[in-house]
């Protein structure tokens, strides 16, 4: 009896020790886990890197922040820590020099340049009406012969245009010749003066004197070299004083009518220098100046016409030619400029990424002016000498999105941390994966690492652009795929079987 009691007592003691040891181990383990899961606070350091941890997040959903590590509720992956940068404040994006080279990031300086106001326009040529000449008859007569047969015919100065028969000139000439032969100089002089009042040319009278016969025909000639822009009569037609027989347009200068958008009308001024290039000869440049700005806005095109004057001594320009035009002001103005590619425009605002001495980048809102020759004027937001990112901005924007500091880009007005928003449309990225599931809205892919986004291998959903997209793929297929980071998440662009065609 005593022996059985002793055995039971010993067993109870051993069980108690075991329970106590187990409880101590569980408690120690629990305290260790609790310490590991505790928020880092101001003194939380990553045991692997020794860096201060601000929070944890899922790189696929960077807007949601967690105060402790663990598995992502959105993806089949572990949460990623986000470390403090420069005293624990999120002041921008820090990218290593190696990654800068891989991403092709280039920098440029904000500089001041002296530039002239300029406009690039399109216009068409037309005759210069200010140098046009008309060929008219001063007497009543008939067109016996036309030398200029049709409009747009080229003529030279002094070339005949029309042969005019004037019957009213015959009698005065015969009277003058008879008085001259009679030797009565007084009456002959009076007859000569009467012929001048009748617009009988002196050259015609001299010819009558030489031949002794009255001249009934008179030739109308071109006063200038140019093109017959108008021909108002035909052979056999009767003409009277003031009737225009032909209109000759000079070609030494031409007008160029340029359409200036209404919003830019105040930038075009008379006297600006003009450089024009014809589409028929891109290597040839024509120079001139702005003659005048025609008052009035076209209700159809909402443009103002500028009348330009171009030099055309060689006659190579013809009416109706389409030309590209550049207007420049006579004086230059000092402006602050950055490369145009350095500006990120969202529609509501324009942003430039400014880098400090350690290449820590932050977004700055800028006010833009005019763009010319690859540079854009900055009227506010920057100072001369600052370093800005000239290329790779969208890759940096993507990097900022993944690190959870995208609020700096989307809420740059406040320049303080805020809820991040996904990019509207990122670059096309590529990967290799195995299809785990196919649904109407998405494909579940187990993909290999994607270095551009610093993703490891993981399983996640990618949205389809349409429910009927990629109908040929099925669960278990090995595929190559491309996708974009859009407003609604990661959306597939293309999926094709490995070694096969597009599905």
Automatic annotation (TrEMBL):
Question: According to its UniProt record, what is one Pfam family this protein matches?
Answer: BSH_CusB
The answer to whether keyword Transport applies is yes
| GO process terms (BP) | copper ion export; plasma membrane copper ion transport
- The segment(s) forming the Heavy metal binding domain are 55-82
User: Source organism's superkingdom?
Assistant: Bacteria
CusB-like three alpha-helical bundle domain spans which residues? 168-216
> Which UniProt keyword terms apply here?
Transport
Gene Ontology CC: one annotated term: membrane
CusB-like barrel-sandwich hybrid domain: residues covered: 133-249
Does the keyword section mention Protein biosynthesis? no
GO terms, molecular function: transition metal ion binding; transmembrane transporter activity
Q: Which residues form the CzcB-like C-terminal circularly permuted SH3-like domain?
A: 337-396
- Residue span(s) of domain CusB-like beta-barrel: 253-330
Q: Which family is this sequence assigned to?
A: Belongs to the membrane fusion protein (MFP) (TC 8.A.1) family.
Please report the name of this protein according to its UniProt entry.
Answer: Efflux transporter periplasmic adaptor subunit
Organism encoding this protein? Janthinobacterium svalbardensis
């Amino acid at each position: 009896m005593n022996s059985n009691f002793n055995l039971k007592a010993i067993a109870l003691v051993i069980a108690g020790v075991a329970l106590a040891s187990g409880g101590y181990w569980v408690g120690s383990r629990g305290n260790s886990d609790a310490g590991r899961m505790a928020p880092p606070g101001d003194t939380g350091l990553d045991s692997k890197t020794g860096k201060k941890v601000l929070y944890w997040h899922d790189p696929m959903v960077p807007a949601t922040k967690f105060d402790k590590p663990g598995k992502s509720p959105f993806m089949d992956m572990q949460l990623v820590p986000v470390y403090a940068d420069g005293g624990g404040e999120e002041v921008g994006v820090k990218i290593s020099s190696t990654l800068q080279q891989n991403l092709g990031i280039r920098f440029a300086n904000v500089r001041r340049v002296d530039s002239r106001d300029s406009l690039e326009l399109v216009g068409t040529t037309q005759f210069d009406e200010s140098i046009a000449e008309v060929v008219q008859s001063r007497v009543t007569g008939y067109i016996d012969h036309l030398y200029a047969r049709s409009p747009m015919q080229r003529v030279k100065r002094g070339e005949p245009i029309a042969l005019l028969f004037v019957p009213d000139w015959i009698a005065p000439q015969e009277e003058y010749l008879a008085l001259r032969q009679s030797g009565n100089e007084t009456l002959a002089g009076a007859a000569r003066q009467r012929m001048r009042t009748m617009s009988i040319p002196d050259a015609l009278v001299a010819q009558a004197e030489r031949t002794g016969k009255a001249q009934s025909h008179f030739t109308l000639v071109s006063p200038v070299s140019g093109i017959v822009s108008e021909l108002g009569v035909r052979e056999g037609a009767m003409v009277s004083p003031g009737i225009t027989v032909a209109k000759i347009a000079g070609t030494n200068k031409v007008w160029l009518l340029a359409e200036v958008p209404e919003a830019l009308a105040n930038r075009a001024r008379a006297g600006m220098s003009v450089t024009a290039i014809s589409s028929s000869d891109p290597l040839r440049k024509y120079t001139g100046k702005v003659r005048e700005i025609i008052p009035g806005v076209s209700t159809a095109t909402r443009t103002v016409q500028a009348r330009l004057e171009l030099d055309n001594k060689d006659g190579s320009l013809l009416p109706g030619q389409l030309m590209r035009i550049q207007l420049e002001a006579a004086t230059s103005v000092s402006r602050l400029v950055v490369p145009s590619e350095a500006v990120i425009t969202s529609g509501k605002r324009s942003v430039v990424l400014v880098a400090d001495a350690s290449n820590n980048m932050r977004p700055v809102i800028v006010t833009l002016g005019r763009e010319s020759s690859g540079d854009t004027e900055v009227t506010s937001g920057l100072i001369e000498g600052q370093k800005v990112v000239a290329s790779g901005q969208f890759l940096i924007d993507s990097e900022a999105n993944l690190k959870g500091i995208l609020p700096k880009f989307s809420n740059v007005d406040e320049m303080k941390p805020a809820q991040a928003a996904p990019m509207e449309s990122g670059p096309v990225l590529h990967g290799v994966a195995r299809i785990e599931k196919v649904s109407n809205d998405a494909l579940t892919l187990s993909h290999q690492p994607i270095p551009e986004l610093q993703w490891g291998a993981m399983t996640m959903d990618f949205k389809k652009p349409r429910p009927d997209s990629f109908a040929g793929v099925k669960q278990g297929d090995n595929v190559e795929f491309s996708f974009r980071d859009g407003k609604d998440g990661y959306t597939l662009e293309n999926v094709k079987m490995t070694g096969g065609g597009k599905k």
